[in-house]
Specification:
There is one protein chain. By secondary structure, the chain is of the alpha/beta class. 37% of the residues lie in helices and 23% in strands. The protein contains 5 helices and 7 strands. It has a 5-stranded mixed beta sheet with strand order 5-4-3-6-7. Strands 1-2 form a two-stranded antiparallel ribbon. InterPro entries: Redoxin, Thioredoxin-like_sf, Thioredoxin_domain, Thioredoxin_ResA/DsbE_sf. This is Redoxin domain protein. Residues 1-17 form the signal peptide.
């Protein structure tokens, strides 16, 4: 069943190469870092922007997931797409992140993931393979999102 779900996700992404962790982004000090540093962990990559209203709901959930599952190998990585870093800073002052935040103001990483809306999340297994993706964040589906993570953490 898991293999079928993985295949369906990859087909849904389209004919282009599937999203991967082989990208560089910026940290809070504007230094280049690689998403590949998270290989070996289950990685929840979330793309967000300061103007994104549903992102304000997803951050508390991501904080909770980070707190509950970090020790089991979960890495939550939120990638901001604002071109003005002050907008991201203001958002984070209001809605703190207790997980990894990275920045991609050029949007090249987001384009390679072929985003369809905000927020968009992508879940990678410990081998760095994309296994699930979501467009939007729906609080009534939060338990389902969590179960996806728990299943991968058990593998």
């Amino acid at each position: 069943m898991k293999k079928l779900l993985s295949l369906l996700v990859l087909m849904a992404v389209g004919a282009q190469a599937a999203p991967s962790l082989d990208h560089t982004v910026f940290d809070a000090r504007n230094e280049t870092t690689s998403l590949a540093e998270f290989r070996g962990q289950v990685v929840y990559v979330d793309f967000w922007a300061s103007w994104c209203v549903p992102c304000r709901k997803s951050f508390p959930w991501m904080n909770e997931m980070h707190q509950k599952y970090q020790a089991q190998g979960l890495a939550v990585v939120a990638i901001n797409l604002d071109t003005d870093p002050l907008l991201a800073q203001a958002f984070l002052a209001e809605v703190p992140a207790h997980f990894t935040v990275r920045f991609n103001p050029e949007g090249d990483v987001a384009r390679s993931f072929d985003l369809l809306g905000m927020p968009s999340s992508f879940i990678f297994n410990r081998q760095g393979q994309l296994v699930q993706s979501h467009v939007g964040f729906y609080t009534n589906k939060a338990a389902d999102y969590e179960q996806e993570l728990v299943s991968l953490l058990k593998e």
